[in-house]
Structures are given as structure tokens and as C-alpha cells.
Amino acid sequence: MSYQKSNISSNNFEQCIKCTICTVYCPVTAVNPEYPGPKQAGPDGERYRLKKPLFYDEALKYCLNCKRCEVACPSNVKIGDIIQLARIKHSKLRPGLRERILANTDFMGTLASTFAPVVNTTVKLKPVKKLMDWTLKIDSHRTFPKYASQRFTTWFKRHAEKSQAALPNQVTYFHGCYANYNYPQLGKDLVKILNAVGYGVQLMEKERCCGVAKISNNLIKQATRDAKRNLEEIRHSVAQQREVIATSTTCTFTIRDEYHHILGLENGDVREQVNLATRFLYRLVDEGKIKLAFRDDFRMKAAYHTPCHMEKLGWSIYSTSLMRMIPGLELLMLDSLCCGIAGTYGFKRENYKYSQAIGAPLFKQIADFGVDVVACDCETCKWQIEMSTGVKVENPISILAQALDVERTKALNNIK
Amino acid sequence: MKYETIIIGGGLSGLLSGIALARAGRKVAIISAGQSALHFSSGSFELIDSEDNPLAAIAQMPSTHPYQTIGLDAVKRYAEAVPALFAEAGVEVSGSVEKNHYRITPIGMAKSAWLTLGDYATLDNATTLPWRKVAIVNFDGYLDFYPKFLDNFFAKRGVDTVHHTLTLAEFEHLRESATEMRATNIARIMTGDLLSKIATELRGRIGDAEVVFMPAVFGMFDAEAVSALRSQVRVPLYFIPTMPASVPGVRTQIQLKNYFQKLGGVYLLGDNVCGGEIRDNKLISVRTANHGDMEFHADNFILASGSFFSHGLIASQEHIYEPIFGLDIVADQARSEWYNQDLYAHQPYMGYGVVTDERLRCRLAGKTVENLYAAGSVLANQNPIAEGTGGGVAITTALFVADQIINA
């Protein structure tokens, strides 16, 4: 006889004891009184919605899906998942042109990187920004991420692909939209490190966007299609004994957790083989399988920012532990606070002021620290922090790559 | 991953043992499943509810009580040491192990306490007060503070009260969401100019009141807002706990956590320890939900996972158990024995918890796990509510196990 087992919902919502700790740590509640807060939007509201869907409140759209409520919850209630699932199930707001543009990061990326110089110049122009604000309600204060004229995948095919198979070990790199279209250097940095320690890099035959922007813009069908395709690729890679690694916390988190929790796809067979690059490298160092050597002349003062999905993964320790191996790096820790952008959220005109208000305490701390660089494993945090503080943001993988003594590392790992 | 000590649980016990170990130069990690019960803390810590000398009362407790396990000398030593340790973390407390003081509760009672945060008034005795007239000040639209209860408290003790409600433009924004107008949200806006504005209001209104009481909505990340406001008001200003979450409680958690991290400690929040490998009566490593097959190895472990509230103990329909390792516990078998129908009578479940040896090392299937210690409310044979020992047991057992590890 086990009533409790058969009684427990997948999101643990009946375990909520109404303690309000989630509300204390919700970045949105702190700045936007229109948002009912995670307790009300999540488990409290869910009780009503189970009775009648008309209790659904469209104000749930203000949720960032940062999952900080789940990290804070002492009762293990999946508050963020409850809110996202309620939005998908009940929201009457249909995604418009703006949502489709912002959410289709891979389609827009293909288009924009093809015409990169034109696009980069155009979206910087004030009249264009005003026009986008007026027509699309994309806030004119927002600085758009730059597009690269050569995609990562193009570079890889031309300059790296051939030499990979000769290396003793192999991994698959899920580069994501950002490394491919906006910042190929990140992908190049990863290839540089992995090759130096004896790992060859393979790409997927047809990688799709992880789908996070489609999920948050309520384009669930498209997100599910992309997710299924990615899972096929991941299974293929795992069958070839290749772990899949990513440089973006959000891609990693989405594939590992959101595919199952939000899209309802079965990913348990490959979940453990999808990893963040810093965790993958840390483990190899920790197990004594690889060694890293760093340049004597490398000097940097950096502060680490914990992206929300990194906080949820609980993995910042891997990125910071790896960076602490660099002798010339002075690393400070910023308080783990949301930067406010939450992917496409902060691009929307109605969210812009809240987005900046959420990030304000973080921006202040960054200014107070007086560092050369902010280290952070998330691309949208990078856009937000660079725009709001003027301080350069680098992925820990890029910092490692800059500090790495490639020749000595190769020698330590017996790589020619 | 390898640490010298891993602590399971990031509340008062986990943090204090972590601080003590990190201060001694040890490499420590705390793994915490969500935020701790400190978020509901009134802001006072009890050693034991007693009119007389608390230590004399502790000496009379049953031999199975955690205080008796660690011994009266240890209780005294650690209890005397903790205010200085708190102060290092920026947590200011007053009180003494020689004699309890009283604090004013949100429902207008005088309750005994051992240590109380600097935010609150402490009283020498429960019946007579040092004031003739006090001002009680609330904010318009704030519902988690009940001045009527306080009226009653002061009237019973022959003290006059005057009430003021402050209406501030800065609250308009908060008032838009009445249900979320909570202490911690208010505390976020209590900085700089707003504090000066409140001080100006107070100066203009308090008249001949000798002291002002306000809801505890000041200073969430540090106590700066409290001292800034106090410095601008000419009479003593004290706070009264609100409905949870408690601003001084959240602040205490943050200050202790920050100090632990400053000492080099690693604090992993939002992760659940799911189990561990025990070999030859020693715990080798633990596994967590977030870290999967990346196990955490350590020489010593501390179980500070709390009681039922924090899931350090679980009650299913059929039985009560310690969920991580299935450790030996004190608990009645039959569900009907767990509780008493009379809410105010002795509740047996309050005394349930893990069994330990005299050094607070846990037991599994009758054998001592040599490097797994327990501290705080997960320990058996205490009743924090009936005895008034919750904070005291959490603090003294935490420092005791840290010393067991340091001196081993």
C-alpha cells in the first residue's frame, strides 16, 4: 500500500508548503508587481488551474524561466516547470512575427551571417532601431549581437575537420546557434583545447537549435521537431562512443532537462552523455586522463558570473575550478544573480525596463570589482553584461584557450 | 571531486560546522537541498527555555539528549564561543549563557531566548518594561504585521502605545501586487533616500514616545539599512518579526554563507545528496542529483540535513526513515505512536532522529560509521519546541562535530 507514491505529481507540486522562499529569490517579483510571483504562478495557481483552466493568468508570461525558484525551494517543487507547462497549456497569446523572428535563432542566423556586414551595420542604426521598436516592439535600447561573416561550421570544414580523426579520442561538439553564427571564436577555442589534449572534434550531421528560444516564445511544435532531430543526432553520436559536449549552459540545460520536463520527450538514455565542455574537461583532469599547461606570460583579472541555468545545473564549480588552474588568472566570484536578459525576454519592449532593473545589482558589483573580463558560460548573459557595463565577457573555454600553452600541453599528453 | 570534509545541509548547523572547519584551514564543501529553515527564523536562538540558570537546567535533561551526549562543558564552551563567531560573519547578537532574556513575539508574547539579533529589543524580564510610552509604526498596505497584538502586549504591562501608519510614494509600486507585498520585497527598496525619508517621518511623528517598534523589513543582504535608519532617529528603534520569509533570518543565512565562502568554503545550493558508498564502516563518497557520476569524496562527512521540514527525515504512510543512507534512527514503528491527538501534548515524532555514539557519529545497521557525524535537528532525542533547545542544539552540536574532525 503506497498512497504517497501514486499521489505524487511529476512536478512535486503537492509538496509545496507555501513557505514563500521561492518568492524571495525570484528576480522578476523583485522588480515587476504585475508578475504574481513563483508561488502564486506555480503551485498555488496550479491547484486552481487543475479545477478550471479559466484561472490561468496571462501574467505568467513575465516568468523568465530562470529556475532560481527551483534552486531555492526546500521542498524540491519544480516551480519553474509548473509555470512553463501552464503557459504552454493555457496561454491564449499567440506568437507573432516578433516572437518568430526572435525564436528562430538558427534561421535568422543563417540569413544574417550570409549578409553579416550589412546586417551588423543596419541594426546599429538609430532609425532602424526605432523602426524595429515601432513595428516589432523590439526595444530600441537593445544592442544586437553581431553576426560573423564566416560561420563556425564553415571554418571547421575548411580548417579543422581533416585533422580530427587522427586524434586518439573523439567527442561531438554541439556548437549551438551562438558559436555558429555570432561568435565562431568560441568553437575554435574549444577545438584548440581539445586537440591539444588528444581529443578530436566531430560535428553533428545536421545540428538544430536546442530550441530554448522557441520554448520560451511558445513555438512548441517547432521546438519539439528540433529537439527530436537533435536527440537522433545525440543517439547516433553516443552509439559511436562519442560524448556530446556544448559550450553554452542553456543549450546543455535545455537538452538534458527541458526536452523531458517541458517537451515531454524521452531523453533518459542519453542525458548523461550530454555535457558542458568545462565539466567534461574538469573530469578528465580530475581523473588524471589529461594534463593542462598554461603560458607563463598570461595575466588576467576576471570575475565569474553564474548564469541562471548554470545555477540550476549546479555546475559553476567545474568552470571556476578549471579557471583556477591558470596561474596568471586572478578570479573573483560575483554573487549568483540573474542578469535580466533571459534569452529573448529582454529584447521585448515591454520587458526591457524590468530586464535592466533585474540586472542592476549585478552590474553594480561588476563595476565595483574593476576586472578586465567577466567570465560566463552563457551567450545571452554576455550580450546583456557587455551592453550594460561595457566590460568584456568571455566564456571560460575562451579564457582557457588564451592561457593554454599548446605545445607544452601537447607534450604532456603525448600528442604530436 | 575531493574535499577534506563534506557537509550535507546548508542551514545553521551546516554553516557553523563549515565555518569552524574552514577557519581551521580545512577544505570543506556544503551541499544544500534548497534554502534553509533560517529563512523562517524569528531572529532569536534558544539554548533552553528556563527561568533559572540555563546550564543548570541542561544538567537535569535526560541522558539521551544531544546536550548530554556532548556534555555540559562542551555545551558551555561552544555556547560561549558562538557570539564571537557570529560577529566575524557580521551577525550581531546579544545574550548570555548565564541567563535567558525575553523577546517580543509577533503575536505579542514574551518568549525566553539565549541570543537575539541586534534588530530586536531584549527584555530582562517578561512582566515589567523599561518604557512608559512606545510608538508602533507600520506601512500602509502591509498586511504581515499585527499592531493589535502588540497593543495588547504593552497594555498588559502598563505601557501606553501610539500608532502611526506611514504612506510612502515608494510603496505604490509594491502595493500593485498586494499578495506579494512581503517583508523581503519591501526590504529590497529600503535603501538610501527612502530610509532618510522614513527617518524624517518618524522624527515628526513620535512625539514623547521613548521607543519605536516597526516591522522587521530592513536589511536583507546586510544590516546597513538597520544602522542607517537608527542613526537618523533620536530614540531607540526596534523591530518585530513579520510573517515569513524573515528578513533578519534571510540576512543571517546570507551572512553566514558569505563568511563560509570567504574562508574558502564551497557552497553548492539546490542539489540533493542521493546516497553514498560505505565500505568497512567508513563513508567513502556521496552522489548527488546534479553531479551524477561525478562523486564527492571526503575524509569526513557531516549530516546536517535537518528534521522533517528539511527532509532530513521522511515519514511515509508506513514508516519513518533517514532518506540518504538509511541510517539507524529512533522512531516508533506504528504510525499511531508517532503523534498525540492533543496538539499541545507531548508529540513523540519531535524526538525522532538519527542515533549516534558519544562523538555524534552515525550508525548503520548497528555499526558506527566512523567518519559520518550528525549535527542539529536530525539528531534524535530532542524536542526543540517543548524544550526551547532548537538553536542551541544546532549551534553546539555543529561546533562539537567540527572539533571532533579538527582534533581527530
State the gist of this model.
With 416 residues, chain A is α/β, with parallel strands linked by helices.
Overview of the structural elements:
The complex is a heterodimer of chains A (416) and B (408). In chain A, strand 7, helix 21 (379-389) and strand 8 (392-394) form a beta-alpha-beta unit. Chain A is 52% helix and 8% strand. Chain A has helices at residues 3-7, 21-25, 38-51, 68-72, 79-90, 97-103, 105-114, 116-122, 126-136, 152-159, 161-164, 176-182, 184-196, 212-216, 220-239, 249-261, 277-286, 308-313, 316-323, 349-369, 379-389, 396-403, 406-412, and strands spanning 169-174, 199-202, 244-246, 274-276, 300-304, 329-333, 373-375, 392-394. The mean pLDDT of chain A is 93. Chain A contains 23 helices and 8 strands. The longest helix of chain A is centred in the last third of the chain and has 21 residues, at 349-369. Chain A has 4 domains: 3-90, Fumarate Reductase Iron-sulfur Protein, Chain B, domain 2 (Orthogonal Bundle), CATH 1.10.1060; 97-136, no CATH class; 152-286, Rossmann fold (3-Layer(aba) Sandwich), CATH 3.40.50; 300-403, Rossmann fold (3-Layer(aba) Sandwich). In chain A, strands 2-1-3-4 form a 4-stranded parallel beta sheet, sandwiched between helices. With 408 residues, chain B is of the alpha/beta class. Helix content of chain B is 30%, strand content 24%. In chain B, the strands form 6 sheets. In chain B, strands 1, 2, 12, 13, 14, 15, 20 and 21 form an 8-stranded mixed beta sheet that branches. In chain B, helix 1 (12-23) runs parallel beside helix 10 (247-262) and helix 4 packs across helix 12. Chain B is globular, with a radius of gyration of 22 Å. The mean pLDDT of chain B is 95. The interface between A and B is large, with 36 and 41 residues.
